[in-house]
Write a structure and sequence with these properties.
Chain lengths: 261, 305
């Protein structure tokens, strides 16, 4: 029944993508976070006077993080230690919009019953819903990453005459940690949407889940990035296992009757 | 061959409402079974139990040997379901919806499209196929739902008020289609309705339900015998011999109660032998509506006692 699940994923995905207003809203915040904010950082670094205090602060950094000039060191710091954090938040935000209405949205449009009459188990429907939101979050994340990378490198090249190579941690963040955290959030939100009575309720519950998660990530993650890439990898693996576990177990106790109530 | 079997099926909702009480029924292949009863009688609950979206509180049911409660996905592959609450996506076109559901039922894209197109043609929706569902009228939606339910060539079709919202022409068209599905393709149809006249047009057997209990079931003749042990015979004649116990209704119109239609020739013979002229002989057969009200009234009297 892979084809049937694929059909649901495609239908949900197109539901958001064909709604241009919703899709552009989905893209605007991530693009603002990843283009406008970093640009301000880079331009500020370039035009700011050399502050001895900052120089002193930067000298405390490990040698590996130091570049040939203050400007490049600071830009490297922004690129490799601050920006990856955004890519943990963006997929969660993007996915929450679609995930929050996964089940309850169908219920409000009276299409849930029809969907339940398809020859799929609840688990398969649940997984299809999770994958649809997850793929959307990854797409938004990928678009944001490409846009950010092109803009920042262009700015660095024109302002400082150099390009910066992103660190290995980017690879871990984009390929492991960000998808894993996004999957955890999506699974929890989709599960919430199966219990909710209205889309509003589901969205509010999602926000209640997302804000602490984002604050936690934003607050703690910059520190983690300064640590070893292996620790990052380990953390990613733990999150991925947790995501997989949640995806397996989340729909266990749901019945058609509960969903339609 | 039995396609749907229901044994002592009961459902009590969490709030304590007993929606279905020990219902036992069986449906044969190619039969159009009319499940009749007023709103809230338990018709939709029965359909939901048979399609596995509700879990029974007692008893069991199966569709061609598949228990919908334990294997709903298998039961769904065998059944097509049209209910008031099973709507489709407004943001997709009529055809788009059918293509999606065809894929969800495991049909190849090409096959799904072909099947969708032929069903749309049959249900006279071809012209509207590229319009978004949001622009469809209630009747068009209802017909599209029927197309959706038939996409995967189900063996059993559950229809909950399929012609509500349809204009007479479309209703006739849908009736014809249901009739053909049952008689030519051998699909078993489980049709819930409270429109008795409509049911009488297409059903081959009936089940009457009220307050979650089955009042009676059988063909219309069986139900007639149950509800009306005697039949009315109306004869238009110049006169009727008094000893035949006819009651005069109007000028030249006489009525009597008989137990069986085999009594008619003898009565006619006696009138003719008495030298009277006969203009017409009518056996008044109670309609499904008459039967329904007679049976429900009987039930009410029982309860009052």
């Amino acid at each position: 029944m892979k084809a049937a699940m694929y059909a649901i994923i495609k239908k949900d995905f197109r539901g958001v993508a064909s709604n241009r207003r919703l899709f552009s809203a989905l893209l605007i915040v991530p693009l603002a976070l990843t283009i406008v904010l970093p640009s301000i950082f880079v331009i500020a670094i370039h035009f700011a006077p050399d502050d001895p205090d900052i120089t002193k602060l930067l000298s405390l950094l490990p040698e590996a993080a130091q570049a040939e000039s203050l400007e490049l060191t600071l830009s490297g710091m922004v690129l490799n230690y601050i920006l990856p954090v955004f890519f943990l938040m963006i997929p969660i935000m993007a996915a929450s919009i679609m995930a929050a209405s996964a089940f309850v949205g169908e219920k409000e449009r009276h299409t849930l019953e029809t969907l339940l009459y398809c020859p799929l188990t609840l688990k398969q429907i649940f997984r299809a819903k999770v994958w649809a939101s997850f793929l959307l979050s990854m797409l938004v994340s990928l678009i944001s990453f490409t846009a950010m990378f092109l803009v920042i490198e262009a700015e660095l090249f024109f302002l400082m005459g150099r390009l910066l190579v992103p660190s290995v941690s980017w690879l871990v963040v984009m390929l492991l940690l960000s998808p894993a955290i996004s999957l955890i959030a999506v699974t929890l939100i989709v599960r919430g949407s199966a219990k909710a009575q209205s889309v509003e309720e589901s969205q509010q519950a999602a926000v209640f889940l997302i804000i602490p998660l984002i604050l936690f990530i934003a607050g703690q993650f910059t520190g983690v990035l300064l640590m070893n890439v292996w620790i990052l990898l380990g953390l990613g693996a733990v999150c991925a296992i947790l995501a997989w576990f949640l995806l397996q177990k989340s729909m266990g106790r749901f019945t058609y009757e509960k969903l339609l109530q | 061959m039995e396609t749907v079997t229901i044994q002592k099926l009961s459902k009590t909702y969490p709030g304590g409402k007993e929606a279905l009480k020990q219902l036992s029924l069986s449906l044969n292949k190619g039969e159009v079974f009319g499940f009749l009863g007023p709103n809230g009688a338990g018709k939709t609950t029965t359909v939901k139990l048979l399609t596995g979206v509700l879990a029974p509180s007692g008893g069991s049911c199966d569709i061609m040997g598949v228990n919908p409660n334990t294997q709903p996905e298998k039961a769904h592959l065998l059944s097509g379901i049209v209910t008031e609450h099973a709507q489709m996506y407004d943001n997709l076109t009529g055809m788009g919806n059918l293509i999606f559901y065809a894929a969800a039922f495991g049909l190849e894209q090409k096959e799904g499209k072909q099947r969708g197109e032929s069903l749309l043609k049959e249900l006279e929706l071809t012209e509207a196929k590229d319009r978004k569902l949001a622009t469809y009228s209630t009747g068009m939606r209802q017909r599209l739902s029927l197309a959706r339910a038939l996409l995967h060539r189900p063996k059993v079709l559950f229809l909950d008020e399929p012609t509500s919202g349809l204009d007479p022409e479309s209703a006739q068209n849908v009736n014809q289609m249901i009739h053909n599905l049952a008689s030519k393709e051998g699909i078993t149809v489980f049709l819930c309705t409270h429109q008795l006249r409509y049911a009488q047009e297409i059903c081959t057997r009936y089940g009457l339900i009220e307050h979650g209990s089955l009042l009676a079931s059988g063909t219309i003749d069986e139900l007639r015998t149950q509800a009306f042990p005697s039949k009315s015979l109306r004869i238009c004649a110049s006169a009727v011999p008094e000893k035949l116990n006819f009651v005069k209704r109007r000028a030249n119109e006489f009525e009597t109660q008989i137990q069986d239609k085999k009594e008619i020739p003898d009565l006619v013979r006696k009138i003719v032998e008495a030298g009277e002229d006969i203009y017409s002989v009518n056996l008044i057969e109670p309609s499904l509506e008459d039967i329904y009200f007679a049976l429900t009234a009987g039930r009410k009297e029982d309860r009052a006692i």
